[in-house]
Structure formats: C-alpha cells, structure tokens
C-alpha cells in the first residue's frame, strides 16, 4: 500500500508509551485504529490553536492528519502515522472504569452504573451495532412483504393485557397507563392496511428480578390480516429472522468476529404442541410437571435441548397454549376450546416471541370478555373494529433485547439493552 495522507477524527482510546514513540489507539465511530505517534514527526495543537506542550491523554477528542501505512500485523492491515493532531476536548478527570481491554473488569452493576462510558468499550458497543443491524433487517424484510410501519401511542387508557402489571400515571387528572404492547392499535390498523408492524418500547410493571426480564423493552410487533391460520405468522417470522441474520453477515462482519457469534441455521423451524412439550420434557429429563398452564424457565431450556438433539434446530415454535394463560383476544381452537391458536418461539433456551391468531368477530369477542368478567364498555374503541367487520388476522411480538441476548449468548438480557430499566434501575 502506498503511503497517503488521510484526515480522520475520534477519541484516544488507549496510549502505550514505548522508547521514542507511542502506540495510540484511535476510537472512531466504526472501529479502533492503530496509530504510531512519533513526537518529532507530529505537530499537536490545543483547542485554541496553540502548540500543545503536555502529554496526550486517553479520551481526548481529536482531529488528525496522518500517513496511512501498510502493516500486516494490524487488524485492519494498515496503521496511521499522525503528522498533525488538533485536540478538540480534554477530559476533566480519569475514567472511573477501565474500558480499553477486551473485557471490562467490573461487575454488571458497575458496568450499568457507568453505562455512558462503558458503552465505549469495543465489545460493548459491538452488541448494539449488531442489534441495529437486526432492526434494519427486520424492517427491510417486512417492508418487502408489504407491511406498513406504524407508530402507536404509548400513553393509553387501558392495558392491552390487563392485570396488575401496568404502570399507572396521571394524565391531566385522568388515570392513564404506559402501553404494555401496541396490540389494540396494530389490530385496528389491520383493518386499514392489512399488514402492519412497529418496533418500539413497551412497558411491564412486573416485579421480576431475573436475568431475562426488563420493565421497559423494545418489541418487534407485526400484525397481518386474511390469514388461513396462525402457522402463517410463524413462517413469516421464520423468514424475517432468516433475512435479518443473513444481512448481519454483510453489515457486521467485524463485530460478529469480535464477539465470536454463532449464527444459527434458520430453516424449517419445528413445531410442538404445548402439552406434548411438557410431557416430552418430563419424560426425557425425569422431572415432574409443576406448572400445568405454562413452561417454566428450566422447561424452556430443556425443551430447546431436546429439540436441538432431535432436529438440529436452535429454534422451536411451541403452539396451542392453554386458554387460561392467553389474553382475552386470543382465538380458541374450535376442536379444543381449552387451548388457543397461539404460539411462543423459543431460541436457545428462552422464549423470545409470543403470537397467535386473534378473535375477529364481534359476537365471539364480546362473549369471551363477558366470560372473563370484563366490562366491554371499557373497550369501546377497540370493539369498534369488530363491530365494523375484521378479516381473520393475527400477529406477534418479539423482545428485541431477548433475541439479541440469545443470539450473542449473553448471560443477562440487560447486557443487550442500552440503558436498562428494571425494578432497581431508573438511571442513567
């Protein structure tokens, strides 16, 4: 490679002083760049344009003119030899955590307490480059499939799923809630566009303190009309995930290599009915069935292991969940009304998606509400679409942070959330 002068900017990620020169690692928006700084060959200027007489410091923001020189031992295959540096800002104090290593030598709590700074670590920020690329891949795929992107309210008068796990707030003297999901609104929009999606925040006031729960997370929601059955939703999600993961390989090769990500095969994801899943796990792993209407976390892990051993898939759709554990808008199976036309997608031992077919006729929806002791008057704007006529439809919601965490095999979903909100954390 012939030497040439380039202009760039970034922050000084690390400085290692050697005899007569220093290795300087420049952190740019996309990568870390190795620089060889020889003081006698480089002019350095302060923010006011005067010559800088002091030592450079880590986390200084700088502009640089440098020679690009071939260096096969460098990760990029080249390095920079600065000839002019202008300092843009000088940090007021030293970093409270060490961020320039491969790993941050601190607990998760310390990492999250210092999140605005620890995100500057190469591995930490790679997580969210990958997450961004996933969102781009999901969006691209859905728009290719004629889905319209919508943006629904996060301040609502009713929770989509009811119960106690909703955040209440005062809205000009009226009681309001933070949206648990865009469920009602995306169903409404099926009557307008037929296919819609939204990627946005949802809120759950659940007092969980586990490695898998957040009180605010990003949900990848879609809803589609004129379906023949909920299986169409499963295959749509399967294709969406396949598309996004293929795109990752092109967009995030450096990040995938850095984190040693195992990209799963997404072929024909297998299906298993809920009760069959419970029975097979109990039989294979000699454990009693305790919770009859849901899968507990250990069962999810064991079921994924079982399916992996039998089919090679790291995904599995669990279908026909009991009516008692699904929301009032879930459609029941005509042949088995005790179960619903619904599903969860499990990925590497964790539920990442919940979806299913919805009740679309007014009479059926009204009957189910009354059977559950619900007051239809509280859902007047929602029932408006059923009165006016709706096609058979259904949808799903995927937890973006959970999906990212399982893809990257992170030990806690908080590691896949920029600024987590849980029962203990409201800052930063």
UniProtKB/TrEMBL annotation:
GO cellular component, one term: aminoacyl-tRNA synthetase multienzyme complex
E.C. number: 6.1.1.12
Start and end residues of each stretch annotated as Aspartate: 183-186
One Pfam family linked to the record: tRNA-synt_2
Record keywords: Aminoacyl-tRNA synthetase, ATP-binding, Cytoplasm, Ligase, Nucleotide-binding, Protein biosynthesis
Residues given in the record as ATP binding sites: 204-206, 212-214, 351, 399-402
Domain of life: Bacteria
Entries under Gene3D superfamilies matching the protein: Bira Bifunctional Protein, Domain 2, Nucleic acid-binding proteins
Location in or out of the cell: Cytoplasm
GO biological process terms held by the UniProt record: aspartyl-tRNA aminoacylation
UniProt function note: Catalyzes the attachment of L-aspartate to tRNA(Asp) in a two-step reaction: L-aspartate is first activated by ATP to form Asp-AMP and then transferred to the acceptor end of tRNA(Asp).
Name of the protein described by the UniProt record: Aspartate--tRNA ligase
């Amino acid at each position: 490679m012939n030497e040439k002068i380039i202009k760039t900017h970034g922050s000084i990620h690390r400085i290692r002083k050697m005899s007569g020169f220093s290795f300087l690692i420049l952190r740019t928006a996309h990568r870390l760049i190795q620089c060889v700084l020889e003081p006698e060959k480089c002019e350095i200027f302060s923010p006011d344009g005067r010559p800088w007489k002091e030592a450079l410091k880590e986390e200084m923001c700088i502009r640089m003119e440098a020679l690009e020189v071939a260096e096969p031992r460098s990760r990029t295959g080249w390095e920079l030899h600065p000839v002019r540096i202008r300092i843009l800002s000088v940090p007021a104090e030293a970093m409270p955590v060490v961020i320039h290593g491969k790993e941050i030598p601190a607990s998760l709590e310390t990492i999250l307490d210092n999140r605005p700074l620890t995100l500057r670590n190469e591995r930490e920020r790679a997580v969210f480059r990958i997450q961004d690329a996933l969102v781009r891949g999901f969006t691209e795929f859905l728009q290719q499939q004629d889905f319209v992107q919508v943006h629904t309210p996060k301040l609502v008068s009713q929770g989509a799923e009811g119960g106690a796990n909703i955040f209440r707030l005062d809205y000009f003297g009226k009681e309001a809630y933070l949206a648990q999901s865009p469920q009602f609104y995306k169903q409404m929009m099926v009557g307008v566009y037929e296919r819609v999606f939204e990627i946005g925040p949802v809120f759950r006031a659940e007092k969980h303190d586990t490695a898998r729960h957040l009180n605010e997370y990003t949900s990848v929601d879609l809803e589609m009309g004129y379906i023949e059955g909920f299986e169409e939703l499963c295959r749509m999600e399967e294709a969406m995930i396949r598309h996004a993961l293929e795109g990752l390989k092109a967009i995030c090769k450096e990040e995938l290599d850095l984190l040693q990500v195992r990209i799963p095969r997404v072929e024909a994801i297998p299906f298993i009915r809920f009760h069959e899943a419970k029975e097979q796990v109990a039989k294979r792993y000699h454990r009693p069935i305790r919770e009859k209407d849901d899968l507990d976390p250990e069962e999810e892990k064991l079921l994924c292991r079982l399916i992996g051993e039998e089919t090679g898939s790291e995904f599995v759709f669990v279908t026909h969940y009991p009516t008692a554990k699904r929301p009032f808008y879930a459609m029941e199976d005509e042949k088995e009304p005790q179960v619903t036309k619904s599903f969860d997608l499990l990925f590497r031992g964790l539920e990442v998606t919940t979806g299913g077919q919805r009740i679309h006729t007014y009479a059926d929806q009204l009957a189910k509400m009354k059977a559950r002791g619900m007051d239809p008057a509280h859902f007047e704007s929602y029932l408006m679409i059923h009165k006016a006529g709706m096609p058979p439809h259904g949808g799903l919601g995927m937890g973006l942070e959970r999906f990212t965490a399982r893809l990257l095999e992170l030990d806690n979903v908080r590691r896949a959330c920029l600024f987590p909100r849980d029962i203990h954390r409201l800052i930063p």
